[in-house]
Amino acid sequence: MAAASVVPVAYQTSLPTVPDWLNKGDNTWQMISAALVAMQGMPGLVILYAGLVKKKWALNSAFMALYAFAAVMPCWVLWAYKMSFGHRLLPFWGKAGLAVSQDFLIPRATLPSTRYVNGDFIAQAASPLYPMATMVFFQFAFAAVTVILLAGSVLGRMSIKAWMAFVPLWITFAYSIGAFSIWGGGFLFQWGIMDYSGGYVVHLASGAAGFTAAYWVGPRLQVDREQFPPNNLLLALAGAGILWMGWTGFNGGDPFAANVDSSLAVLNTHICATTSLLVWTFWDTFFFKKPSVIGAIQGMITGLVCITPGAGLVQGWAALIMGIASGSVPWYTMMCLSRKLPFLQKIDDTLGVFHTHAVAGTLGGALTGLFAHPDLSALFIVVPNSRGAFYGGRGGVQFLKQLVGASFIIGWNVIVTSIILLVISKFIPLRMSEEDLIIGDDAAHGEEAYALAGQGAREKSTYNNMQLQNASGFEL
């Protein structure tokens, strides 16, 4: 008969495994949501980027996403989580602090509990019933995805060493400021800005910062800008599918509980995404006579981004309208306006993150200011008269607040991203050398994505001959 196990006295604890306040259903849903969001970055965006870029950049693009996903975590638990969701240092800046001890991670999660409205403190609706560790992981996934989205603007030329330095600095001085200001109890939070799940904090921030980074890093080689076919569109579709389904957790997890609002947010997310994809495809077919697969991916993304700030705040019919808008406005800015405005032509935004995330995020925030239903808003944000302009009252003020909130996120990210990159450039070149830009993955990593010749290894000297061939039209 086996001896009964005995827990040594040194390891005995008074902490209950299942405390009275723990709701297992909420905790399960929140951890699943966190995993879904994390999978949007790794492997979703890793695969999407690897498939969408030219063959010689497949590995480098995937690695930039992979590195960013990993690099955010130590920053997050050592200082950035509390900068985003901790005590106030400035109206837009939280105090840095550790989020690694059991004394912090095991007790019940807390959120910014009050809003200051008309001289009174008003309690927030969300009251998590799970450990702080769950919340830290959930919010980490958002931060990681944000900086990976930003990378889409500078693929195909940014120095990997500069990128490695950029990620922790940007998370610290850009992302955490937007997160604290709107979500963590900062001045935009207190003012009542509506951003249900990151239309501003994640998507507008990544789009504005990515566009700014593309300016400072400079454009790809001219041959890459003119000929940049995706090396594996089926792989890109797989990554896009993971990104899309992961959005179930992205928006469905933001009521911080498995409740009726999370169900509504999930349904609205997919209503808007499918509508946007279909509308974008219609415009491609109508004007260019063929439905584009890349266009369908872009339309899917803009729909997901647009609904994000209002996913649990608007009704289903509003999600349909937002899908029509997100399939049309970013399509116009990407397919028409970007070909007419010299400013947009000059800046080489590799994957069009400005259009899919900055434009769609701003659009979604503004439409939330129009369509947010007062009853639905009360499920998530307990602020008197919290409603979109469509429902009268002070709703028109809400619409203007949404525009002001977008302006702050844009302005802060343009300024801080510029400062970070200018500082990095004093120590590390932001761009790869011209020779290395011709080579691509092998120059950056000493590795290549595809071993098409059997070995997959090529000498650098080979590329000297290829460069000469390129002058005669050889596509690298």
How do the strands line up in the largest sheet?
1-2
Termini separation = 70 Å
Q: Could you tell me the strand content as a percent range?
A: under 5%
Residues in helices, as a percent range: 55-70%
Shape type: globular
Mean pLDDT: 89
Give start-end ranges of low-pLDDT stretches: 1-7, 116-123, 454-476
Major beta-sheet overview: 2 strands, antiparallel
**CA gyration radius, whole angstroms:** 23 Å
Query: Based on helices, strands and strand pairing, what is the structural class?
Result: mainly alpha
Number of strands: 4
Number of helices: 20
What report would you give on this structure?
- By secondary structure, the chain is an all-alpha fold.
- Helix content is 63%, strand content 3%.
- It has 20 helices and four strands.
- The protein has helices at 24-52, 58-85, 102-105, 132-151, 160-182, 187-191, 199-217, 222-226, 233-252, 260-288, 293-307, 316-326, 329-335, 342-346, 353-371, 374-380, 395-425, 434-439, 441-445, 460-470, and strands at 88-90, 93-94, 114-117, 120-123.
- The strands form two sheets. It has a two-stranded antiparallel ribbon. The protein has a two-stranded antiparallel sheet with strand order 3-4.
- β1 and β2 form a beta hairpin.
- α1 packs antiparallel against α2 (58-85) and α5 (160-182) packs antiparallel against α7.
- The protein is globular, with a radius of gyration of 23 Å.
- The chain starts with 23 loop residues before the first helix and ends in a 6-residue tail after the last helix.
What is the topology?
Layout lengths: L23 H29 L5 H28 L2 E3 L2 E2 L7 H4 L8 E4 L2 E4 L8 H20 L8 H23 L4 H5 L7 H19 L4 H5 L6 H20 L7 H29 L4 H15 L8 H11 L2 H7 L6 H5 L6 H19 L2 H7 L14 H31 L8 H6 L1 H5 L14 H11 L6
Antiparallel strand pairs: 1-2, 3-4
